[in-house]
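Pasting as-is:
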Amino acid sequence: MTHRHVNIFFLFSLIFIFFIFGELDDHLRILLALLLAIIFGITAFLLNWLTYDGALAAGIFGVISFGFGGWPLALIALFFFISASLLSKDIAATDESFSIKFRRDGRQVWANGFWLCLWILIWFITGNTIFLAASIASIAAATSDTWATELGSGRNNRTYLITNLNQVSAGTDGGVSIKGTLGAMFGSAIVGSLCWLLLNEINLITAVIISITGFLGCFVDSFLGVKLQGNSLNIPFLSNNENGTITVSNNIVNWLSTGSASILVLLITLII
């Protein structure tokens, strides 16, 4: 399954839910979200933040996050995207491969935004707050991982492999550093604080759980980066190859880590 398939899935999902479950106020907000998403996607493309595919995916993501989640969720999603882009720009400005490191494509958008969109659509249909919390936890994990990566990848940062704590060069898959870990903690904590301040449905305890699970999601990403990234897996329905295999990329690892954070929030909130 490619990012284009994800685009089609969410596009048809939002159209279906728009007509079947949406009321007049919802319709007006979703149409406004569509207009703003178009403006944002074009602007991000012109600012070199997104590729064409990335702008299209971000547009669909924006319609769902604001149109179905409202202003608070849209602001949280914007915080992630803008902070990630600014951090990437700061790191990449001294790198010859600026455009490669900096511009995000559709795969990267959905690696970080898939679970938010999925849980938000389910929350919109059911009204159950645990799905709202799960959606925010996925963004907390994405923010935590991105901040850790960008802040901890400097050449002067001592980096250790998460599985055995052997020292490795900065930027190694599965590497953790003090600076990166602090960045991960603060990034996730800010997302948790924002959802507590902006959303009446999220109480303080749930916000703390979101912050913690988002932070843990960053370590899941590092662990999977060591164990899975670069390996070939036999998954025919996800493969474009004749042999039915896929290579586990960084985007797949990000998708798994953000999903693990959101599912963990679901389990914890169901227990308590």
